[in-house]
Amino acid sequence: MSIVISAAGTILIRNGEVLLVHRPRYDDWSFPKGKVEGAELLALTAIRECEEETGFLAVLGPNLGIDRYETFEGKKEVHYWRAHVLEDLGFAPDEEVDKVAWIPLDQVAQHLNYPHDLEFLERAVALPPTSPLIILRHAKAVKRSDFTGEDDGDRPLSGRGRRQSKIITEVLEGFGVEHVISSPMRRCQETVKRFVKHQSATPTLVDAISEWGYEQNPEDLDPAIELAMNNPAPTVLCSHRPVLDAILDTVARLGGISTTERTEGIWSTKLSPGSFVVVHRAFHLEGSVNTVKIVAAEHHEVPGNQET
């Protein structure tokens, strides 16, 4: 059985230029990228490797696909994201990357050593500016059968769920989230609590996306989701498994994604606790009306759901 090496990288674009790194081992120019560490989410690998190799802290945009090729170690799969700069922490050359350079987009082809890298850059440049909406299932909660409280809305996260919330905080930061919408139920609020505290943000609590609220008044869901979709701020919406079907149906419809266009691996509503779908929205004016269109979507499974 051949070994598959998972890796991730960023195509970091700023002011009409793209960031390249030089690797002395191969004497080549390419994009910042590197291997996954342990059970690390690929999106977080892309951010970490960009920071370690270039000193730039990146915010992720749409996923650009997978570059597959053979190495002496086995088959390698590199997942790329378009990204922009959040902060310059300072470049520190080492034995892996000794130089970085911002290259004008119309000159990149002269510098890149691999034709397939240019294909990924062309995908990144072709996409319009986007803002993410993250549909998040709350992290792993205490089992209903183990909960001794009277109100299920008070059921908290389990130990695994609290560990997942740390990963979720990193993910939300990595996608540049600014606005938090949550079900009022405790397990949802606890899922985003660490992020909210870190960002000094105030979450918007919406009954319509809670289990109880949706069950009692399902007609309130569509207007709530429409408000979130039409708000251009990078947003996370934290809800529950029984509500995800309706939420994702509404998000897809409002973003112009038909049922036949919904790839099951991305748009599956069978999210495990703490996992999420990211839709990348493009906003533009049609006459006097501001419209929203989903131009990309991705699905991420957060570790920590296995029983041991």
CATH homology superfamily of the largest domain: Phosphoglycerate mutase-like
**Main pleated-sheet profile:** 7 strands, mixed
Distance between the termini: 27 Å
Structural class: alpha/beta
The helix/strand order is EEEEHEEEHEHEHEHHEHHEE
Question: What is the percent of helical residues?
Answer: 25-40%
Tally of individual domains: 2
Number of helices: 8
The fraction of residues assigned to DSSP E strands is 25-35%
Query: What is the total tally of β strands?
Result: 13
CATH topology of the largest domain: Rossmann fold
Rg, rounded, reads 20 Å
Shape designation: globular
Low-confidence stretches: none
Q: pLDDT average, as an integer?
A: 94
Q: What's the CATH architecture of the largest domain?
A: 3-Layer(aba) Sandwich
**CATH class category label of the largest domain:** Alpha Beta
Structure notes:
With 308 residues, the protein is an alpha/beta fold. The chain folds into 2 domains: 4-126, Nucleoside Triphosphate Pyrophosphohydrolase (Alpha-Beta Complex); 131-300, Rossmann fold (3-Layer(aba) Sandwich), CATH 3.40.50.1240. Helices cover 29% and strands 33% of the residues. The chain is built from 8 helices and 13 strands. The strands form 2 sheets. Strands 1, 2, 3, 4, 5, 6 and 7 form a 7-stranded mixed beta sheet that branches. It has a 6-stranded mixed beta sheet with strand order 10-9-11-8-12-13, sandwiched between helices. A hairpin with a 2-residue loop joins strand 5 (56-71) and strand 6 (74-88). Helix 3 packs across helix 4 (186-199) and helix 6 crosses helix 7 (241-254). The longest helix has 16 residues, at 159-174. The radius of gyration is 20 Å and the shape is globular. The model has no long low-confidence stretch (mean pLDDT 94).
